[in-house]
Design goal:
By secondary structure, the protein is an all-beta fold. The chain has one helix and 13 strands, in the order ββββββββββββαβ. The strands form three sheets. It has a six-stranded mixed beta sheet, with no helix packed on it. The longest helix has 5 residues.
């Protein structure tokens, strides 16, 4: 992001969430601005996406057509054994590929933040390695301007319903395995992570159970 300040003292504040270890707002940094203004740079009204991520302005263009869609569900459940942090109903497994993607694919993903009767609603910052993505919908509403991210909050609905985040992504430059996960380390460490594999050959059917060969 680009920020332009007038003279003064400013604070960068983390708002805090009831779901985080840090519940209350906290000051992360204090910025003191002084001296003569630098007028040599003008901040653009709209940021141009990097060349690596060409625009999805026209979905009919070659290279923009969606070749696959998928839905990924993040949920927290609670039982006598404690809290369980799940993606698609499973915890992380080192030997299991949960998302297999064809190289050169253009995909539309819908991330679902599940409301559960046992745990209610929970915040999840979604992060995926290697590939940035273009956010196209937050709880069904289109952002006013294009938002390219590698991490983005999967929202709650604010009611007893699921929150949703939708994005577009191209898988062009890397073949192999990496991960996606919730960026709250407590959630990730408890199993809210998946292995992604990008490959040239046809992908096998996704696993249907929660077994893990390494267990």
């Amino acid at each position: 992001m680009l920020v332009q300040f007038e003279a003064g003292t400013y604070q960068m504040v983390a708002l805090g969430y009831l779901d985080f270890v840090c519940w209350a707002p906290q000051v992360l940094a204090t910025v003191v601005v002084a001296g003569d203004p630098d007028t040599s740079l003008q901040i653009p009204q709209v940021l141009t996406p990097p060349v690596l991520y060409p625009s999805f302005d026209d979905m009919a263009k070659p290279g923009n057509e969606v070749t696959n869609t998928r839905q990924v569900e993040f949920s927290v459940t609670q039982d006598a054994d404690g809290a369980h942090f799940l993606i698609d109903g499973r915890t992380f497994c080192m030997s299991r590929v949960d998302q297999c993607i064809l190289l050169d694919a253009v995909e539309e993903w819908t991330l679902v933040n599940k409301f559960t009767d046992t745990a209610g609603e929970s915040i999840h910052p979604f992060h995926i390695h290697v590939n940035s993505f273009l956010v196209t919908s937050i709880n069904g509403k289109t952002p006013a301007q294009p938002i390219w991210r590698d991490t983005c909050l999967i929202p709650t609905s604010g009611t007893n319903a699921d929150g949703t985040l939708k994005f577009l992504s191209r898988f062009l430059h890397y073949k192999g395995q990496y991960v996606l996960h919730c960026h709250i380390l407590e959630h990730e460490d408890e199993g809210m992570m998946q292995i992604v594999e990008v490959q040239e050959a046809a992908c096998p059917a996704p696993p249907v159970d929660d077994s893990c060969d390494s267990e």
